[in-house]
Fold each of these.
Amino acid sequence: MKSSEEIPPVSELLEYDLVIIARPRFDMEEREGRDKAGRRESGGKPLICRCPYKGATRTADCVCFDRDAVYKSPLMSIRWKRLIVDEGHSMASSSTLMNRGVCVAQRLPVERRWIVSATPVTGLLGMSSGMNIGETEEALEARREQELEERRVAQTNEANDLEKLGRIVCDFLRVRPWALPSEGQSNEYASWKVYISKGFMQRQPGSTDCVRSILQRIMIRHRLKDIEKDITLPPLYHTPVYLEPGFFERLSMNLFLGGLASNAVASERVDKDYMFHPKNRGPLRELTNNLLKRSGFYWMGHSSADVQLMVSVSERCLTDPTKHHNKQDRELLESAIKSGLRALGNPVWNACIRNSEMG
């Protein structure tokens, strides 16, 4: 069922064994119980029209709740056996737009709730899908360092992962004792933040086992040996092929290295201005991915303004009488200026930059 389609009446829905609804259309059912202006009843009691001409007819500018125009969702009139949400990790989003789906799921009469997701919580699982078949020792060591760095970054996001997991467990799956009690149930429930998030982040004894127990209780995960019983995959051959860069690829790489060299010398390799400062780990990774990897395959990687800025900064550092750079730093600045001027003086490079094309 697409977003623009109306949900069929209850009599027609009962004829189907399976109903598939697009997520945006499912979220629209959050208007259940609202009138055309999006207003709800207050505390279950209809609001009284207080406009000057109240009674059998309403004024055109009436701002009161219109009980006769309340939307009644056909989905809410059926007792469903199972609700399955694909890409269900979106149910853990804290944004208002995504939470509309959670509100619909909470109010929907359903026996079982399922989430289908490949990444429910990335940092807590610590899964890695790196390929090591046919890799050289240097490539394997580089990938291991990258994985260790990713794990260190993931540890800083554990609080966010636990919060997302808590939304799935409490708000969508409604697992007791963490979920708020429904109508007619006891008011007793356990606080996820107090007993899970706080204990896990403080590394209290047994907190890790508690989180693992919850995941094992709510998660069904295919193991590799179970898949291999049903599906036999052909052997995988992985052969690295190294490409020789051309003139413009070399030029882009030199501009990238020149920018790093200019930054290192200009910042004197201290404080937050230094690109390799520990607090710039995220921007450095983004810069590497955008410029070093993509500049040789998708785009030239730099703009004329960026290159001109790099050249001017390098020249200013090189001619500053108050700075006493050593021979190595002076060679770095001279190389950065040389690469920048070579690019700015190349008409083909400038044409590619203006038209966002490759050389």
Note: Confidence is low (pLDDT under 50) at residues 125-134.
Amino acid sequence: MAEGEERLKSGVIGFDEKIEGGFVNNSVVLIRGKAGTGKTAFCSSFLYAGALNKEPGLYVTTEQEEDDIRMDIKKMFGWDLKSLEKKGLLKFVSVMPLAAGKEEKTDRLIKAYISEFTNKIAEDVKSMKAQRVVIDSVSILQMFIQNRYTSRVTLMSLTKLLKKLGVTTMFTEGIAEQGVILGEEALTEFVVDAVIGLEFVPVAERYNRTMLISKMRRTDHSTFIHPFAITKKGLELLKIKTPTIATMRKT
């Protein structure tokens, strides 16, 4: 870690020690995984930890209504989000693309949505003085835009805007069940500062969730696959029992 470099706590129990104490301030982190792997849990843990530390956070959803996200988080963790929202420490907003009519020009619709999307984020960040932002997800943006070049330029512009606003951001990106990244291929990983992959791993007759940090700029990070669980305490890394030389000899 560079001397004097500020780090933000992730909110994930046992995770910060794997990334030199937290996320680099003003960086953009990609959380990637299939449905149900814990993307929303990871992102909400990040915002909740910030809110408890008086660091306002903005949750932007592109695929669900605000109340659906609130209910999902409440069901997982039981956190009191309303009091944090009243204090201006949390805000949930939904900015979903609209379906184009038969007579509507697609290019015009795309430009209008991108403009509305970026303007809304900038306005809310400034009004609440947000320090943390979640955009869940960027997959729908890429699918809506369709054009590969335009998708990448949009993501680059969005990343540049977020850095200019001085916030630390999490993007989520979906992966289909067959392992294909949703949207215009794997564009996002090239414009972000960090990539964390979430996965289901079969263990005995059940599945365990795991995470892998495949990229994190300016950070000496863990390269191990870490199992984790969604508990009432929050998202928590599970300790791995590493076999010693003595136990290996016995086996």
Note: Confidence is low (pLDDT under 50) at residues 244-251.
